[in-house]
Each structure stands twice: as C-alpha cells, then as structure tokens.
Amino acid sequence: MTEPKRKRRISRVAVLIVLGYVLTNSTAIMYTNIVSNRDQVRAEQSARKQSQLFCQVFQTIDQAYQETPPATKTGKNFAQAIHQLVLDLRCLGG
User: Fold this and answer.
1) How far is CA 73 from CA 49, 67, 68, 70, 80, in A?
2) Rounded to whole angstroms, how far apart are CA atoms 94 and 91?
3) Rounded to whole angstroms, how far apart are CA atoms 82 and 46?
4) Distance of CA 5 to CAs 16, 55, 56, Å?
5) Are 58 and 80 in contact (CB under 8 A)?
6) What is the pLDDT of residue 89?
7) pLDDT means per 10 residues in the chain (94 residues)?
8) Per-residue model confidence (pLDDT) at position 91
9) Domains of the chain, residue spans
10) Shortest CA distance to 60 belongs to which of 75, 79, 88?
11) Helices (H) and strands (E) in the chain — how many of each?
C-alpha cells in the first residue's frame, strides 16, 4: 500500500471513529432528555392528583366552616387558613 493511500485510509477511519462517537453521545443525550421529560410529566400529573385529593378534604372543611362559622378567634383563624389553602390550590369551586 502506498503512503498516500495509507494516509487516506487512516483519515477515513479517524472520521468514522469521530462520527461514531458523536452519534453515540447524541443518541444518549436525546434518550436522557426524553426520559427526563417523561418523568417530569409524570411528576406533574402526580402532583395535580395529590392537589385534587387535598382539595376534596379542604373544600369539605371550608364548606363546613362557611355553613357554621367558628366562634373563637383560633377557630376563625383556622377557618381562614383552610379557605386560603382552597384558594392557593385553585380548587374547583373554591
């Protein structure tokens, strides 16, 4: 094999190695992003579900306090705090 052919072959092999490296890393990064996004969506769905479960509890308590307001200052403060939670969680009907 002549020297110019040998240099071309070495250059081609080097280019193929670099391309393989870039492709492998690009694929790994894309996969990581896909998995990360999927996990983030699942976490957000879980948080919304938890919020809705808390909403049901807080709305029930809030409604009870709306129908029968507490007489003590502590009770009124507690009722206001529950009502604020309903608003902060953006509970439906809150």
Assistant:
1) 33, 17, 14, 8, 10
2) 5
3) 22
4) 16, 74, 76
5) no
6) 84
7) 86 93 93 90 88 88 93 94 90 66
8) 85
9) 3-88
10) 79
11) 2, 0
φ, ψ of residue 35 to 5 degrees: the values are -65, -40
Contact between 70 and 31 under an 8 Å Cβ cutoff? The reply is no
Torsion sign (Cα): 64, 67, 71, 73 = positive
Picking from 93, 25, 29, 39, the residue whose alpha carbon sits closest to that of residue 62 is: 93
Amino acid occupying residue 81? A
CA 62 to chain centre: 29
- pLDDT of 93 reads 58
